[in-house]
Amino acid sequence: MRAVFIFTGVGLINLTFLPEMNFFGKNVEINLVLTIFGFFLIYAGIKSWFANDKDDEEKDFSKSPGAQVIHKLFKVSNEYSGGNFFTIENGVKVATPLLVVVAVIEFTDLIFAVDSIPAIFAIAPKDPFILHLQYLCDSRLAILVFSIG
What we know:
This protein has 149 residues and is mainly α. Helices cover 64% and strands 9% of the residues. The chain contains 6 helices and 4 strands, in the order H-E-E-H-H-H-E-E-H-H. A two-stranded antiparallel ribbon has the order 1-2. The mean pLDDT is 79.
């Protein structure tokens, strides 16, 4: 999914360069999409700076968008079934809470991608392979960190 976002983003960025302008004696190319993403990153940074740690402890993740999607698409069991995403209850195939957990994690990963893709695009806007390699390295590092901790 990330590769689709990256390659689509590169195409979108290539389409949204404004004509070259002269600012303080330098010719600059401004990209509309990167500018919007830049403002989004500033907003996210300010919001993170002023976030309260108590908010995380009281947060109900069952109301997150990832969980809501699974609850809309499938009937969800209250019981885990080992490592299975689906189980059969009373002759009906239902999702297990494990699928809800994975959906929440994946939705969170998608949000982090939306947050960090603009920063990588600002560094290498015309090279999708470097962008994809960065994401592969980030995901492998996250898996390593979480498996050790």
